[in-house]
């Protein structure tokens, strides 16, 4: 048997021992990810023969080198020069060079590209003979017994599923959170430590951290089986990952690579939170009901982390879908008389950068309007009953004041109507005359019905009506006073 390292022969040939072990994920029962070999050479340096020679030069020809004539007093020096030659050959500069173990019959040799662990020379006289031991770590021995996809020595993969406190969304009418009481945060942690890889010519082709990174990348992404088959939370299949983030850490000197990735598991595309508050004021007969909420859109990416829909796109889509339910929320929580479906105030805030929409709606129980299309209206009627008529006559020197004389008649009764309303803006630059024409038709029916003749008056006479109209702001005001006679 001949042992050759970097084309340099070790003569006499050392004995060889090879030990193979498997690397697993998570202990003895884990998945096998790679194998490792420990190769040990046990040889002897002879002062006057072999390779390296007494000058520390290795034999690289065929056959064996001739014996040397070394004076007994010089043999210790020859041994130390041979030791130095071995230490130089098996040094960091030559790591990854080819180690061959050849059979004398010319059959295919064992070939490997070892990492040097240590070289030792045990204590002794070192006069004529000096034993040595060289230990290597080897990833592959050619011809290959088996191969692995990734050249790593250790790895870890963990999943964590945590419920969040805020419900994904909530249905007030059924008093239940939709689908589930919570959405979930899913965390996937991956790490690996790699080894250097050499090609069949002994060239370094991959650093340890690169090998570790290859394994980590191969296992990235959400595992739907983990989500749906935990046997603990038992999430339904329609729960999928949104808001996918990854953090990456590479330790080049340690040869390791790690990635943490997180998702929000939801059945929808956004997270909504809202409150409904009821406010009563003795100065108004109507309670006010405020619905305040926020929508946070969730980002959706494909398996390559490419954006499919943004947070803001999903927030807008979700907000549009809940608009019909905002008024029912107010009515359900209030539970009293029917509310007016037209909100008193509306405030919408949009933040495209953060993918959020904040909204506020205020309702009350005011009656439905009498003016078609009016955003708001206020109609007031006031009466002046006819008082007794009398004459007031001043008398000079009368300390008690004027003389009051009954006339046996009464003053006329009056009824005043005032209407204030806000209509949708109606300004048309191409038809200014039409735009600024008072919208008589919107209130004519109200004015007609409130005429005193419809309350039993036999006669009524209207004063000139006072009309104001702003098509830009939609503000309308109208007032009239009737003087009327009753039987």
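^ Assign residues to that structure.
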């Amino acid at each position: 048997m001949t042992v050759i390292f970097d084309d340099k022969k070790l003569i006499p040939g050392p004995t060889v021992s090879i030990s193979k072990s498997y690397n697993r994920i998570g202990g003895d029962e884990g998945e096998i990810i790679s194998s490792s070999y420990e190769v040990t050479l046990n040889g002897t340096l002879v002062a006057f023969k072999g390779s390296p020679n007494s000058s520390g030069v290795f034999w690289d020809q065929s056959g064996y080198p001739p014996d040397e004539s070394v004076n007994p007093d010089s043999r210790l020096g020859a041994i130390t020069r041979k030791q130095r030659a071995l230490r130089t050959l098996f040094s960091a500069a030559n790591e990854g060079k080819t180690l061959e173990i050849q059979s004398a019959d010319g059959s295919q040799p064992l070939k490997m590209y070892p990492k040097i662990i240590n070289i030792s020379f045990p204590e002794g006289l070192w006069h004529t003979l000096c034993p040595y031991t060289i230990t290597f770590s080897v990833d592959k021995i050619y011809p290959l017994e088996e191969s692995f996809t990734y050249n790593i020595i250790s790895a870890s993969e963990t999943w964590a599923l945590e419920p969040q406190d805020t419900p994904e969304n909530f249905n007030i009418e059924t008093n239940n959170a939709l689908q589930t009481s919570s959405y979930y945060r899913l965390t996937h942690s991956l790490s690996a430590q790699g080894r250097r890889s050499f090609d069949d010519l002994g060239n370094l082709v991959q650093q340890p951290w690169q090998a570790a990174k290859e394994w980590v990348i191969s296992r990235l992404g959400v595992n739907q089986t983990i989500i749906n088959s935990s046997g603990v939370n038992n999430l339904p299949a329609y729960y999928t990952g949104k808001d996918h983030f990854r953090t990456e850490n590479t330790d080049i000197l340690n040869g390791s690579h790690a990635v943490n990735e997180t998702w929000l598991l939801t059945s929808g595309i956004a997270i909504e939170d809202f409150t409904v508050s009821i406010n009563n004021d003795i100065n108004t007969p109507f309670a006010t009901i405020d619905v305040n909420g926020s929508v946070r859109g969730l980002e959706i990416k494909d398996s390559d982390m490419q954006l499919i829909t943004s947070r803001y796109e999903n927030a807008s889509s979700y907000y549009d879908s809940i608009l019909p339910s905002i008024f029912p929320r107010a009515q359900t929580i209030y539970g009293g008389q029917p509310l007016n479906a037209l909100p008193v105030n509306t405030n919408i805030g949009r933040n495209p950068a953060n993918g959020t929409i904040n909204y506020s709606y205020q309702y009350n129980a005011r009656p439905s309007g009498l003016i078609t299309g009016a955003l708001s209206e206020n109609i007031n009627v006031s009466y002046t009953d006819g008082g007794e008529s009398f004459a007031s006559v001043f008398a000079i020197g009368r300390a008690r004041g004027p003389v009051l004389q009954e006339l046996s008649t009464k003053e006329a009764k009056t009824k005043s109507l005032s209407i204030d309303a806000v209509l949708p803006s109606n300004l048309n630059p191409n038809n200014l005359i039409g735009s600024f024409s008072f919208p008589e038709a919107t209130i004519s029916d109200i004015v007609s019905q409130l005429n005193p003749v419809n309350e039993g008056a036999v006669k009524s006479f209207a004063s000139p009506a006072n009309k104001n109209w702003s098509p830009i702001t939609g503000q309308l005001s109208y007032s009239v006073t009737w003087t009327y006679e009753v039987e």
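The CA atoms of residues 181 and 275 lie 17 Å apart.
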